[in-house]
Amino acid sequence: MTSPFAIESTDLSKRYDDEIAVEGLDLAVRHGSVYGFLGPNGAGKTTTIRMLTTLLRPTGGEAKIDGVSIADRDAVRERIGYLPETPPLYPELTGREQLQYVAGLRDLPDAEATERIESLLDRFDLDEDADKRVSTYSKGMKQKTGIIQAILHRPKVVFLDEPTSGLDPRAARTVREVIADLAAEDTTVFLSTHILPVVDELADTVGVLFDGDLVAEGPPQKLKQRAETGDERSLEDVFLEVTQEADLPSNGATRTEAR
Ligand SMILES: Nc1ncnc2c1ncn2[C@@H]1O[C@H](COP(=O)(O)OP(=O)(O)OP(=O)(O)O)[C@@H](O)[C@H]1O
């Protein structure tokens, strides 16, 4: 039977010399869902994403993407798209050339590549600037190009690190709509961001990482529900609480489960 999970990790860990960046991470992210991956600066989010996207070798544990071990780099890379914090772009290419280049790397047939590139350029309001060099692009224009190249080949799983970073409100809304569309088409979206309303709106499940450890996980609605009183609090309240609680060893950090 095929696994219901697009992303699975067991005891995934990364140690840099004596610094433990990620410790024993267990993830199970369903196909076609949006997973909001939260955590304070330095919590280990980028390290986790770099391991799941095969860019960094774990020092412990195992993970599978769409059923394929991250040890099988080529097979995993075929299945994923990744928008890192700084999108990898060639400044001397135009936006359109950059996307054509990526479509070529992904072996997209020419006609499909052209159709996909043009429709995404149009959707992100980048069509009029597509023949300018990337070196002349604003931060937001580079970010839009980075997002398009991450989803161009219709990956099964897409990892987005702060996708709305540097985007104006209209473009940020487009990104939110694109994420919802991807999930509706059964693409799994692993979304790392500090912008909690975006996660609240889009995520099926939220995971909060703190000091390399998952300290809370569940659907946003459940996490926001106070168990004792039934009152609702904001996702920001939840975030502040679980990342502070875990900070105080005397409190005995517990994982808030609300699956
Ligand atoms: N190449 C490296 N060498 C040594 N330590 C590293 C390296 N990369 C990351 N770290 C450490 O690992 C921990 C996790 O870093 P990581 O970049 O994964 O955090 P993050 O959650 O993505 O943070 P942010 O929200 O600030 O982007 C930090 O303590 C960081 O200093």
From TrEMBL:
Entry-linked Gene3D superfamilies: P-loop containing nucleotide triphosphate hydrolases
Quick check: keyword Transmembrane in the entry?
A: no
Residue span, ABC transporter domain = 7-236
Q: Which UniProt keywords apply?
A: ATP-binding, Nucleotide-binding, Transport
Q: Under the GO molecular function aspect, what terms does this record hold?
A: ATP binding
Q: Where is this region: Disordered?
A: 239-259
The record ties this protein, via Pfam families, to: ABC_tran (PF00005)
Spell out the protein name for this chain.
ABC transporter ATP-binding protein
